[in-house]
Amino acid sequence: MNFQEVLAGLPPADHIERLELCCDGAPAGHIDNRPGSAGSVRVYAAVARDGRIDRDAARRALELYAEHTAAARAHPGHHPNIDRLLRLLADGRPLTVTIVPRNR
User: Fold this and answer.
1) Rounded distance, CA 98 to CA 2, Å?
2) At what angle are helices 38-47 and 55-64 packed, to 10 degrees?
3) How far apart are CA 47 and CA 26, in angstroms?
4) What is the DSSP letter of 75?
5) Mind telling me which Pfam families this protein's record contains (predicted)?
6) CB 88 within 8 A of CB 95
7) pLDDT per residue as tens digits for the range 48-90
8) Of 1, 2, 84, whose CA–CA distance to 47 is shortest?
9) What is the model's pLDDT at position 104?
10) Element spanning 32, H or E
11) Does this model's pTM top 0.85?
12) What pLDDT does 26 receive?
């Protein structure tokens, strides 16, 4: 299955403005729900359990990213949201994920 097919099976994220990420209580970035990163919002939101992404969730996310995971491994820095998950696998430090809702 490719990434577009995977996305078709994930819950929608229209209600999300962005995801704010922390590691060890310190900011670790954010992912805006906009073209180019909306798929990452859906992946991260789908795998986070109780607002947290641990090694198991990171492995699942990397599976969901499908062909993009291989591209990220081959070209570090080109897929920062996947790079972040690969770092998590290497260092074991989980991410806290806070959903910032979209104002409607």
Assistant:
1) 27
2) 140
3) 21
4) S
5) DUF2322
6) yes
7) 999 999 999 999 999 999 999 999 999 999 999 999 999 999 9
8) 84
9) 64
10) strand 26-32
11) yes
12) 96
CA–CA distances in Å: residue 66 to residues 22, 47, 51, 86: 25, 14, 23, 14
Q: What is the pLDDT of residues 8-50, one digit of tens each?
A: 999 999 999 999 999 999 999 999 999 999 999 999 999 999 9
Domain residue spans in the chain? 3-99
Give the largest CA-CA distance in the chain.
Answer: 40
The pLDDT, as a whole number, for residue 103 is: 87
Instruction: Mark out the alpha helices in 17-79 (DSSP H runs).
Output: 38-47, 55-64, 67-74
Nearest by Cα to 44 from 91, 8, 98: 98
